Write a sequence for this structure.
């Protein structure tokens, strides 16, 4: 009798939690920060303005300069923010700071985060390399970098060129195309499929998963987008469980198979770490490269003199990719949490304070870059940008992104030298990720 009475209560509690937990996750991770930043923007707060103006796709150059005018660190009601190149590099490389999702170091919120956890592998939550810290990060990254070497990426170059040529062959030059949908999005996800050892018959599935999971890297997602992301991550986790089993049974000539086999003192990555790495490759490798390609095409069509330099000297293409990354980077900013009381540039930073390092702003620092507002594919120090971060969390896929950017941009302008953008191009309404949602173009 007791069991009969309590079973409905347990069922009701489970259903209530199934509703309450995702709402809590969304509220803490997205809704509350979005509301707080909008309110701060209305008060003129620099960080609030940065978030709101970024989501509208505005030119942020003036705001970068205003933040920089406050010194190495600008202190606001939201926290601390910097667009100084030297400060960004110091913070990102310092042991005094650790990675953080934009949630305050608050005991109640931390308990709610723990209670509401979905248990899903997430690209910006532990054990992802983006979110882990030493000593776990040291062991983890050492194993991953042993596989994702510059040589391994270079071996993908020939295949990446072949994929690019196939995609360009498939474009109808007589009709307008959306370059994001028909080119910029397809190239990175097809390369990612090579890295993950995805069989050809499953690549359409991975393409769909990559596009849906990419917003997981951003802040302030609407409820519907958040739920789509979570459903996608759950689906990817299920697919990946089976896929890893297949690769263990029949390893292939791909980086994920090599990562499964990687060992340090006889110890390899755990199942969750393998999944986290694959998820990071999918989400981060997809969205950032889509943005790099789209931003690059837009910049080069708007600066025909720079495109002419590349046609006169094709050896400049590699440098041009770094100038695109400097001028209009795929990621606006990243955040760090002070692990102890410290100071940057003479400004005290209290333990638990959040600091936003604005990568795009550091890339416009006149102390590092002459005439930083100019787009110059021959810029001598273009590679000094911080678009891949710095320190122990420097982007693992930097070499891959550069290679894909070089091949993807060079090839489309070689194939379609008269390419021009049409009206209707639209920037993404995102706060951290910077790129185009649509980019209509005429190829001839």
């Amino acid at each position: 009798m007791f069991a009969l009475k309590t079973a409905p209560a347990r069922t009701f509690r489970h259903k209530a939690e199934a509703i309450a937990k995702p709402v809590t996750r969304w509220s803490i991770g997205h809704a509350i920060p979005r509301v707080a930043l909008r309110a701060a923007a209305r008060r003129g707060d620099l960080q609030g303005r940065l978030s709101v103006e970024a989501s509208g796709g505005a030119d942020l150059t003036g705001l970068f300069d205003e933040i920089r005018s406050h010194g190495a660190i600008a202190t606001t009601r939201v926290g601390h923010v910097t667009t100084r190149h030297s400060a960004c590099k110091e913070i990102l490389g310092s042991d005094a700071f650790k990675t953080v999702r934009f949630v305050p170091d608050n005991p109640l919120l931390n308990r709610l985060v723990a209670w509401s956890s979905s248990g899903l592998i997430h690209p910006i939550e532990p054990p992802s390399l983006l979110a882990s810290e030493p000593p776990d990060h040291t062991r983890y990254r050492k194993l991953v970098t042993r596989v994702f070497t510059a040589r391994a990426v270079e071996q993908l170059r020939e295949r990446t060129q072949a994929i690019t040529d196939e995609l360009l062959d498939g474009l109808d030059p007589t009709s307008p195309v959306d370059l994001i949908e028909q080119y910029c999005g397809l190239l990175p996800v097809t390369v990612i499929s090579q890295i993950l050892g995805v069989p050809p018959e499953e690549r359409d599935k991975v393409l769909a998963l990559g596009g849906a999971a990419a917003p997981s890297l951003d802040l302030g997602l609407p409820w519907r987008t958040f739920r789509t992301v979570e459903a996608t991550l759950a689906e990817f986790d299920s697919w990946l469980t089976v896929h890893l089993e297949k690769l263990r049974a029949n390893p292939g000539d791909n980086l994920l198979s090599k990562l499964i086999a990687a060992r340090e003192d006889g110890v390899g990555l755990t199942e969750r770490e393998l999944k986290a790495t694959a998820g990071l490759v999918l989400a981060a490798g997809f969205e950032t490269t889509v943005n790099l390609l789209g931003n690059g095409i837009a910049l080069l069509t708007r600066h025909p003199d720079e495109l002419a330099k590349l046609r006169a000297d094709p050896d400049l293409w590699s440098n041009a990719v770094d100038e695109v990354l400097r001028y209009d980077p795929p990621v606006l900013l990243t955040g760090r949490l002070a692990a102890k009381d410290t100071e940057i540039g003479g400004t005290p930073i209290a333990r638990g304070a959040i600091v936003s390092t604005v990568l795009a702003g550091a890339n416009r620092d006149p102390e590092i870059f002459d005439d930083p507002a100019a787009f110059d594919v021959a810029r001598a120090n273009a590679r000094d940008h911080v678009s891949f971060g710095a320190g122990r969390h420097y982007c693992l896929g930097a070499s891959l992104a550069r290679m894909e950017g070089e091949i993807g941009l060079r090839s489309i302008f070689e194939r379609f030298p008269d390419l021009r953008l049409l009206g209707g191009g639209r920037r993404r309404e995102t706060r951290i990720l910077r790129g185009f949602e649509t980019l209509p173009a005429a190829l001839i």
Notes: The CA atoms of residues 80 and 202 lie 44 Å apart. DSSP finds 18 helices and twelve strands in the chain.
